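Input (Probable butyrate:acetyl-CoA coenzyme A-transferase):
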Amino acid sequence: MDYIAEYKSKLITAEEAAKLVKSGDWVQMGEFVMQPKDCDAALAKRKDELTDVKIRLTTMSWLPEVCKVDPERKHFIMNDWHFSGTSRRLMDKNLCSYIPLTYHEARSLYQDLDVDVSFQPVTSIDKNGFFNFSTSNSMASYSTKQAKKLVVEVNSSAPVCLGGLGESIHISEVDYIVESSTNSKLVSLPELPVSTVDQKIAALVMEEMMDGACIQLGIGAMPNTVGALIAQSDLKDLGVHTEMLCDSFVDMYEAGKITGAKKTLDKGKMVYTFAMGSDKLYNFLDYNPVCASYPVHYCNDPYIIAQNNNVVAINNALEVDLYGQVASEASAGRQISGTGGQLDFIIGAFHSQGGKPIIALSSSVKKSDGSLVSRIKPGLSPGTIVTVPRSITSYVITEYGSFNLKGKSTWERAEGLINIAHPAFRDELVKAAEDAKIWLRSNKLYA
Ligand SMILES: CC(=O)SCCNC(=O)CCNC(=O)[C@H](O)C(C)(C)COP(=O)(O)OP(=O)(O)OC[C@H]1O[C@@H](n2cnc3c(N)ncnc32)[C@H](O)[C@@H]1OP(=O)(O)O
Ligand SMILES: CCCC(=O)O
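Output:
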């Protein structure tokens, strides 16, 4: 079938697309590295005609024009499902708000949300009339379905990401098409410096890895270091069922470590819901049938995750308290990131036969004034949000060791966690545990 006539009839300029927005509307503006830049710029130009336009996006990888032109947030109200550094810096000036999200529940959330206009970034149309959501399958099929007016912004540089479900939208479901004026390459994440602490933690994580493991890696330098160690290891037949696909999966695949042969679900496929990395990753993904993107209600459903055996889920956290509560998203009232899919994968790995849900974090962090603070805390401070409840927390790994909390009582947890805390804080943590009646006479410090 020839879609040329339909394409031409739906083609509008970014300025025309921006005119679809009215004051008070909810506007959807892309996810992760898929950015509807032309529609954003055209909407920003309409600033003086509009008030209270509410915008939703996921993990801002760019500074949208609508934020730049409205430093008092009178016209555009920005909201992010999962904070990036850019959203944090906007929030510090009260220019961005967080929307709480347990990622795999996004489909049900969108069923109740208003999407008046969606500016949805896509790849060029294919011969069957489909636009692909490229690296951000994630929630795209839910927000586009919910949109009263759906505009796709076509970026011909974005890779076509083959998928198992929800990775594309047909032209018949689209109201309008805008062609990007720049077709810019997707943004590359900066390479993160790897510290000796990251290397020590990654080496301890490797001790928990086995042939045939089905892996999920979170964001940051430490999970990437684990990926690099796997690529150099003797591990065999690893599988991938992850939320985010990043560069280190390319390294592991090219080193022959990933075959997906032992997976019980999506055998042979590297399953993910969004991808962020560098050109190396984006080139690898383009039309690559080894990878399958899925919407997040499938990818992150703990009971889908758990259908694979030996799921090893490796995620980072900001703090862990002596009871085993994991805080990964906000500290003392400051939103850092979000719940995202951390809880999904920790529960999924918990239920997977042979699975290992791992929280890996450095034992301490240096504050801007140079002082050292422990990441193992007696309790969480007000404004610090629990991402993983203590009843599910299992492996916690710092550069001082690994401790599995699964099924452990409060006094066993206190002992195990204090023994992997930074030595400079162990005595004060013991004192706090005694005061909280979670330290017994028989408890020991081992170092
Ligand atoms: C994309 C994925 O992760 S998929 C996996 C599932 N999802 C998740 O795990 C979501 C929750 N986890 C996360 O968001 C991340 O893993 C994090 C935030 C815990 C760690 O990510 P990293 O990129 O390694 O964090 P990084 O060390 O760069 O610090 C990020 C910010 O937190 C601040 N921060 C770090 N530790 C602390 C702390 N203990 N207390 C207060 N703030 C802290 C840093 O100062 C920095 O803020 P700034 O950039 O505004 O200065
Ligand atoms: C939107 C979720 C991203 C994450 O889990 O980190």
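The CA atoms of residues 205 and 380 lie 25 Å apart.
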